[in-house]
Amino acid sequence: MADHLEASVTLPSDPASVAAARTYVVGTLTEWGLPADADLSDTVRLIVSELATNAVQHTFGQSPTFTVDLALDRDERLRVGVTDSHPRFPKRLPAAVQQDNGRGMVIIRWLTAECGGRLRVRPTREGGKTVSIELPWTPPGRPAVAEPATAVGGTAGEQKPSR
């Protein structure tokens, strides 16, 4: 695979665009070799859904569009960011048990940390913000963690200790 891949889509700040953002991201990751049913694909799909929903709901009509950017560096790190033109940074709100919303950033932080990644929020030059995540990328066919050789039963070409 290439050392660096990028993809981007700009969508209207409309609730229907959340599904379009998810579809775009999963399609791009599939083109880059990640199966659509992989755990990482599911995680990124949920994170993008939350970020896009925030861009639509919490910009109060002051951001007519939002942009989803993806970048894959050296088959090692996947970055996904959602940029809107509203200047207010997301806040972690205390969510009441019965509350239907307000947990998006908590979900994003948890999923990102669970995958060994990080979350960043930074201002744009135009006065908006980008909320992005960076996750480790394990290319298909390469194990995420090298498994130690097992001594029980042995494997082909492995010699068992003599007694």
TrEMBL record:
<keyword id="KW-0808">Transferase</keyword>
<keyword id="KW-0418">Kinase</keyword>
<feature type="region of interest" description="Disordered">
    <location>
        <begin position="136"/>
        <end position="163"/>
    </location>
</feature>
<feature type="domain" description="Histidine kinase/HSP90-like ATPase">
    <location>
        <begin position="11"/>
        <end position="132"/>
    </location>
</feature>
<dbReference type="InterPro" id="IPR036890">
    <property type="entry name" value="HATPase_C_sf"/>
</dbReference>
<protein>
    <recommendedName>
        <fullName>Histidine kinase/HSP90-like ATPase domain-containing protein</fullName>
    </recommendedName>
</protein>
<keyword id="KW-0723">Serine/threonine-protein kinase</keyword>
<dbReference type="Pfam" id="PF13581">
    <property type="entry name" value="HATPase_c_2"/>
</dbReference>
<dbReference type="InterPro" id="IPR050267">
    <property type="entry name" value="Anti-sigma-factor_SerPK"/>
</dbReference>
<dbReference type="InterPro" id="IPR003594">
    <property type="entry name" value="HATPase_dom"/>
</dbReference>
